[in-house]
Specification:
Layout (H helix, E strand, L loop, with lengths): L2 H15 L2 H8 L5 H20 L7 H14 L1 H11 L4 H6 L2 H13 L5 H18 L8 H24 L7 H24 L7 H28 L2 H5 L4 H12 L7 H18 L21 H11 L8
Helix pairs in contact: 1-11, 1-13, 2-11, 3-10, 3-11, 4-9, 4-10, 5-9, 7-8, 7-9, 8-14, 10-11
Amino acid sequence: MNRLVTIGLTALAPLSWGSTYAVATELLPPDRPLFTSAMRALPAGLLLVALSRTLPKGAWWWKSAVLGTLNIGAFFPLLFLAAYRLPGGVAAVLGSAGPLFVVGLAALLLGERARARNVLAAVVAALGVSMVVLTGDAGLDPVGVVAGVVSAASMGAGTVLTKRWGRPEGVGLLAVTGWQLTAGGLFIVPIAALVEGAPPALDGRAFLGYGYMMLINTGAAYWLWFRGIGRLSATSVTLLGPLSPLTAAVIGWAALGQSLSPVQLAGMVLAFGATVFGQVSGRPEVSGRPGRATQEPFSSSEETDRNVSMDLADGPVRR
């Protein structure tokens, strides 16, 4: 499968995440972000683990816990805290700075060259997102700012470590995704119980919303996201992130009756153009430090195809 198709499939993840706001406001109980986060992650993770019929072994118990916490368990609550404390879309702008963290961490941990074009794409994308989501009354609450920055750094670190550690030989991506979602969900559950109390009563609309969140918005989306990390550079993957707030803005306009000003439209064009620009690479990016023996974080494309196919069979071969 060529690089363009891989980018397109990976982009489906942030496009799906862009629907979170609309689904949450239209179908789910109000003011229960932590409960919603747990419902997104834990059932999806347990389902994927059951389908893969594979549990972590050895070091992958703690590696899954670390990755699940960074990519999901800490990221979700911090993101919601930032959203509650920062009006006017400031949280989305801070989140769009995530690619800058990945550029730096990928250079440090993966040996991916910090190219000027990638930094430029990340900065321009953040500028475009700010034009879409910021309003004149946007405030800067210190706690919210810290939460927004740390959430972006958490997801960025999780992306880079996911690329660096890859997955165990012979274990399919379905299992590894399930491990992370389960670990992240288990991290969130006690926090949700402490902060929000008992789960709310759910009606048919809520079950429909949580079903979409669990299966499409989280299970399938994170599978595609981690798949992309395995086949593309960490920087290339994270530069697809701004598609999420852009999708949210489009859904708000098309489905929720929200208006888009000329400045917002210009910001959308700018952010989308920067995202596309970030995928254009003059030459292949190499993971691993030059002059030093490194373990390939993910297998070759042929081995990856073989392992992905095992996700759909009776289960991966254990070695």
